[in-house]
Amino acid sequence: MIILADILNATVLFAVPLILVALGGMFSERSGIINIALEGIMIVGALVSCLFLSAVDKSGFGPANPQLSMLLAILIASVSGMVYSALLAFASINLKANQTIGGVALNMLAPAFAIVLTWAIQGQGNTTIFIPTWTRISAESIGVTDISTFLPRFLFKSFYLTTPAALLLLLASILVLYRTRLGLRLRSCGEHPQAADSVGINVYKMRYIGVLISGFLGGIGGLAFTLAAGSGFQSQVAGYGFLALAVMIFGNWKPLNIFLASLLFAFFKILGSYSSSIPFLPQFKGIASSEYIYMMLPYVVTMIVLILSSKKSRAPKAEGIPYDKGMR
Amino acid sequence: MDDFVIEMLGITKDFPGVRANDDVNLQLRRGEIHALLGENGAGKSTLMSVLFGLYQPDRGRILMNGKEVRINSPNDANALKIGMVHQHFKLVEVFTVLENIILGAETTRLGLLRKDEARKRVMALSENYGLKVDPDARIEDISVGMQQRVEILKMLYRDNEILIFDEPTAVLTPQEIDELMGIMRSFAREGKSILFITHKLNEIMAVADRCTVLRKGRLMGTVNIGDTDTHKLSRLMVGREISFTVDKKNLEPGETVLKVKGVTVPSKLHKKNAVKDVSFSVRRGEIVCLAGIEGNGQTEFVSALTGLEKISGGQVTLKGRDISQATVRGRSVAGMSHIPEDRHKHGLILDFTLQDNLVLQRYWEGAFQNRGVIRGNEVRAYAEKLIAQYDVRAGEGPDTFTRSMSGGNQQKAIVAREMDLGRDLLVAVQPTRGLDVGAIEYIHSQIVRARDEMRAVLLVSLELEEVMNVSDRILVMYEGEIVGEFRPHEVSVQELGLYMAGAKRMEREGVRA
Q1: pTM for the full model?
Q2: How many structural domains is chain B composed of?
């Protein structure tokens, strides 16, 4: 039972960055801009917020006000993600650049920039920005002392402020996308920007908003990933930005489907790392490190799922096409 | 003193290389239906785009109720209560009818959309004007006619007083056109002012009060419909007499070239068959026309006939040979040429040059290639020959990229390529769609020439005028079946319309040989 609680806890922990980043990608693509730069956005969000966390750790402000610092870190991650995504928006909306190439460029820039900045601050060769332990919300801190039973173990084994934040942002995303004026207009720009233009909607503005929301969510997602990964920030997010793209496509650009898809992918990821402690899983005798087979799982599942769902999936019709007022 | 709602004075608009509007005046009276007539490329759409704020004029002014206004965007036009039904509908396909109507004019409470209130208003408007729509249906699931009603409701929802209709009748059946005319008249009675862009003279005569005629960007004049007739209007529009009837000599059809028996084609959109058990034949020296409203299986039938799709039942015979399973090129070589419905998608490779497009059906023949290497000089000579023979106008001759050519000349290039193959069967699908009067005349004359050369012609058309003028025999297709067979002089347009809408059907006893 305890092992199940641990697995579920870790599943949620790793699903959080996927939910956030995939929702971000969804907003961008629903407005008509393909956002391949999610990986880079995550890295930048994680970099800046981890630097902030380690700074407040040293100054003493962090240990004294742990969750306030975390809230600030989330805000900082989101703002830095937005700033970085604005580069993509500028290139693809103002300059009408190829969105895929623009995104790839940002993905290549981000880790290099992160290493340079980390070394500049921490000294040559110190690649890891360690995350202070006080960032975790422990069971003790809210008065639960015994975490040997299922529920507290599931909730608190690793619990960060990013988890409730992600749930709130998921609900907000559903509301914004389907029930507000902004959502309706944003979606129309991803489907038929000429129609949106003809009823007086500013397509460029809507697409900027879409990309900036993806930066906002992607930045937080970067921080959430680093917290989940545990060891600290090492100028990379292990392809989670791309995994989030797959989740978004599997989720058919719909928030609730994205939520479920994230949980599924995270589950397989966790199955990989817990494979040795789950007794009934086959152990592939004769293979030296069979855990690697399980660690491939989320990526293999991604491919299989994309093959199976590609027929049903329906991307926003106008995504990837720069909007040109003159073309009609 | 005339009561003008809108006056466009001295409008000049340049595009790179062309002057689309040259000092054009247009005055719209309150409560009138004002037609704007001109060929394709005459500048009608440009002028309306200026009024709707999509383009800014280089010179000229727009007055509203005598006061000068600036219209820099559709937003400004909306604020001045100017609305437009675009020729290609501006509807988001995956949105519902209601969402499309409110888009851009949403009302909200606490930031959330108030759809219930909007629904009430839309339903009231829909009832008031007899514009039947289902507010919760998605645009992609409803008919073209209903999509147009959605566009009209969009204008009414915004309380527009000046309504622009850009070629609204192109996609409608005769009955739907009558309905639309009625609706336009009721708008005019309420004091709304209507601008009606078209190149169909009989519609202008039926519904308009006045008509402004443009030719090559210039104003030819504004006339009262009461003082004119179709001949005067057409002379104003093209600058010469045009013949409305196609000259055809009497011809006794020869042997059967194409025989279609029980052909059935599955649909891609739903589980039912798109084409059901269709049988007919086409003989030498005969133009058989397949008429019907868009989406009744004609496209699927032609795809199956030309080998782009597979048939699930039946048999296609060409000159006695079973070609039901033949490849596209196999059918071409067996004696079929095809002028496709969508000239951009299936007719031309737009980013290829004209000469490459002209040789596209025969580049593999010995005359044009040697061991897999294209003989450039031969191709060029052949292209030049076709360009001269079929009067294809292209800026850089054989080296012109077909994308930069006008629609009429693109179509001429396809006609040249397909006609010159000298095949016994010509399948022409909506060959005059979107072309101006001059080009239509030319294409029709080429189709008739093919018939006079004793080839067999299958013409698929949505334009009833074309159906009546060109064909020797008419087959009406409704929901994938042939529901009527006529000779053009035996039937009226209204009668055909009833068959096309599925209101009437004829039991055919086999195929008329």
Answers
A1: 0.80
A2: 3
